[in-house]
Amino acid sequence: MASSWLPLGEPRGTTSRRSSLALVVVILLLRLPSWYEPRWYSDQGLFSTVGMALARGVPLYRGIFDNSPPGIYWIYALLYRLGGAQHQQLLAELAASAAVLASCLLVLRLGAWLLAPRGALLAAFSTAIVLSLPTLDGDLFNVEIAGLPFFLGSLRLCLTRSRLALFGAGCLLGAAVIVRPSYALDGLALIVPLLSGPKPATRVAIFAGGGLSAALGAGLGLAATGSLTTYLTVIMPAEHAYLVWANGGDLYGLLIRLGLLFLLAAWLWRRAESPTARLLAIWVPASLAGSSLTPRELTHYCHEAVPALSLALAYLLARRRLSLAVPLQMASLILALELLLVLPAQESSRLHGQAPPPALAHNFGYAQLPAYYVNWFQYASGGETRARYSALFPGQAAETASEAAALRRLAAGRPLRLVVLGDQPWIYQKSGLLPAGPYITTNTAFWRVPAAPGALRALVASGCAGLLVYVSGPGDFRPEIAAAGYVAISGTPWPTYLSPRPEGCAGITP
């Protein structure tokens, strides 16, 4: 009975090399403008700064803090080693393009197993378009896109009978979770192929061995730099606190969402009449659950659900005329993703009697897309300056560039450390200065660590930060700045100070 769940190693159709090549060309054309983008988005600034610090010997978590698992920081550290501060952003965009390209080719290949050939093409090309739209944060290299090819590769390997492939599938799912933990929920869909075929218990055991191997490798990597204890005692509680905070102060709303999605999965499973429908019955609700764990309408959260939704819509629409299926696929996919961003945030806010957040809070709205591409074309063709091109992007890119230049002049080759009070992590990476303490921003993740505000105030009050930039609150650090005797520097975008002990203090800098 179990062997009828999914036809292992038996694709329903084939996809031609011409289709794969066309997919590659489309993705490269869609993503080409992102390669020119300035350094502007806060999350990429965080990852780039942490990657720079790791590449220069600062231990993760113990010496520099952010609340994500280690996978994304290790990737950015590799990018820094490959290209340094000058080329890390371009390499990040190229890495994002490579991740989207791999994900879409895997969707095309999965479609060959699960759908008719037309459905495979429909799912793959709609995934390519959506994962490349700036409106849906497709121009960014964030944790969802970074983890997506690992998860899809795991699913692809689970569709074979090979034991070595099953072990590799476990390793790839482990890698996805090390980048983005919510992929563990998507991993519930792997139950269907794992329990298909002969000896399902053996298949599950081999897969689990691969997953445990990936977890062990990550643990050893953290232990080698003395960071494992900090991860277990500081980062994991901070992630839990962030989850609770993002859901309005408790987990009731999250439990309601998960319960509804479980009921949806059960209903879809009972109605499933094909192996493909059984897989999608679990994968679609699981991916929706993973994407909505922290309902803050941050657009890149929806990337996790794109392949599952694309394949499910293609499964429903593949038999329609192509002229009707293509627009229906794209419109339905974008609508589903917008609802995925809006509805959980609305549910959480209304459940807690709070004002709902503004809907469709994109960095670039749909109406701004033509201006985004026109602005890129004018710059790429030499008709616009870099400064005017960069001015379209949010995130105060011009101010951070000016501040970084001033800091480089102040440092003048001395090994000074920097503290930025506020949420402008790009200042570190653009100036090339390492942080004086572990906390590089005072963002929402920072405030989820109980000891963080006190530790940062003590660092500022000690005068041990060679340079200090006061971007914003929350929190008033002016008494500590005055008590330590920092000297104000004029002519900078934000209040900037030089320490009376600019070379730092022993035992303070990581």
Which properties best describe this structure?
single chain; disordered C terminus; 510 residues; 4-stranded mixed beta sheet; mainly alpha; 2 domains
Topology:
Blueprint: H1 17-31, H2 42-55, H3 71-114, H4 117-130, H5 143-158, H6 163-179, H7 183-186, H8 191-194, H9 200-224, H10 228-246, H11 252-271, H12 275-291, H13 306-317, H14 322-351, H15 369-380, H16 386-390, H17 397-411, E1 418-421, H18 426-431, H19 452-462, E2 467-470, H20 478-484, E3 487-489, E4 496-498
Parallel strand pairs: 1-2
Antiparallel strand pairs: 2-4, 3-4
Care to describe what's here?
The protein has a four-stranded mixed sheet with strand order 1-2-4-3, covered by helices on one side. The chain has two domains: 2-351, no CATH class; 397-498. The chain contains 20 helices and four strands. It has helices at 17-31, 42-55, 71-114, 117-130, 143-158, 163-179, 183-186, 191-194, 200-224, 228-246, 252-271, 275-291, 306-317, 322-351, 369-380, 386-390, 397-411, 426-431, 452-462, 478-484; strands at 418-421, 467-470, 487-489, 496-498. It is globular. Mean pLDDT is 92; it is low at 506-510. By secondary structure, the protein is mainly alpha-helical. The relative contact order is 0.11. The protein starts with 16 loop residues before the first helix and ends in a 12-residue tail after the last strand.
Q: How many independent structural domains?
A: 2
Determine the number of helices (DSSP H or I, runs of at least 4 residues): 20
Strand order of the largest sheet: 1-2-4-3
Instruction: Report Rg.
Output: 24 Å
